[in-house]
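Troubleshooting entry. Yesterday's outputs looked truncated, so today I'm pasting the complete records for two proteins to confirm everything comes through intact. If either block looks cut off, that's the bug. Protein one:
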Amino acid sequence: MVLGIVLHAALPFVSGFERFWPSDPKSSSAISFIFHFIHLWRMPLFFILAGFFAKLLIERKTWKKWLTNRLVRIGIPILIFSPVMMVTLPWIYMYGWKNEINITFTLEGYPHHLWFLWHLLIFVFVSCAIRPLNIFIKNTHFFELLNKIVFMHKLPMVLILLISFFILFSGGELILNPFATSLYFLLGYSIYKDLNFLNFLVFNWKKYMIIGLIVSCVFLIFENHLYLDFQYKLPPQELNELHDLIWLINQPIKVTGSILISFGLIGLFESQINQFNPIGRFLSDSAYWMYLIHLPIVNLIGFYLFQFSLLPEIKFLIAIFSTLFLTLITYKVFVRSTYLGFLLNGKMYPFKKI
């Protein structure tokens, strides 16, 4: 989640987003690569982990406990932070575009970066709707077979094709597509307690990472360079057809890369981080708060830096580390030892402990 700070700090320096995001006079190829690479797998991995831990909570407690937990820890933050974003982000974006400050309250652009919470909430409501079918599903071999065909593979090609199909309707993005994000969620849900597969990821995470990086590079080349090679060699009609064809072919490549890298990262961390670490615990707990509150901060800092003639990479790093510092400090002082911290983390820590 904290990588959201990196992505939103990068956007002003990535060409192609000028229509909906204030842009710095100078773009950066290096920052653009960082943005597109992280964007490829970050949210797929998030929804895979969300599904995994949903199953963990249901198994350790009950479905009703999971339902209550999700309504409280997702629904209430939506109610709290939605008005904050509606008050802060519109005038900050206006400041970025016109260098003017005019405080306004508007729904334009909502839900902003909070879209992933709405997707998780949709999954909760859908699970309530299909709950009466649970007994039928548990006693039907068809659904068990369907689960194995779609999800339980070391390279789930059926799942990749399904996700690729669904994202065609949202321009290849997940933000407006709870159908696609639900498939990533169900993938994580199906992985829980599959010890054979988790052990396989632990022993083969390097292979997943290497192949995932290769596939992702192919996607990025197709996405950003191949079309440009023909830009001045074909008439407009043929160029548009070629663009559509490349885009269509590129979607399963993108999904494949996102799943392979996600599996590689899960295997990496499962193999390397197997002991309690207080700093890791603190950073992990702070991530939810940092993501919820970071967008106005990183945008205001990034847009303010437009007026300075610094290298884009310097501005990028300033925006990242300034936002990290402010969000970590506010988490430590105002959140971790308060009821808000209890809401976000499920625990209220004594102030002196990290």
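Protein two, checking that the full record survives here as well:
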Amino acid sequence: MFGIGFKELLLLVGVLLAVWFGSRMLQRFEAHRGERASMHDRRRRAKVKDKDKAERPSPAKRPVEEMADCPACGVYYARGTSPQCARADCPVRG
């Protein structure tokens, strides 16, 4: 009366197999996605590193300038040059 027939048993086995194969496919997809993401991250880091090396001069070649600030407007400028402030009453600009 409440027994499981052949059709129900076959359907149950089919559903279980579908869930099992689906989970395996999902695990493979996630693993492949993780590999691709790490590959893109490695490429991006290498590209940024190469770009930084090309754009940034070495510390020994980088000139160092002493800075001073304008007492009237507070703008910083390199010593030996005039500040680029727009004030007419700038005491340093003269």
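Both blocks look complete. Sanity check on protein two: Helices lie at 6-55.
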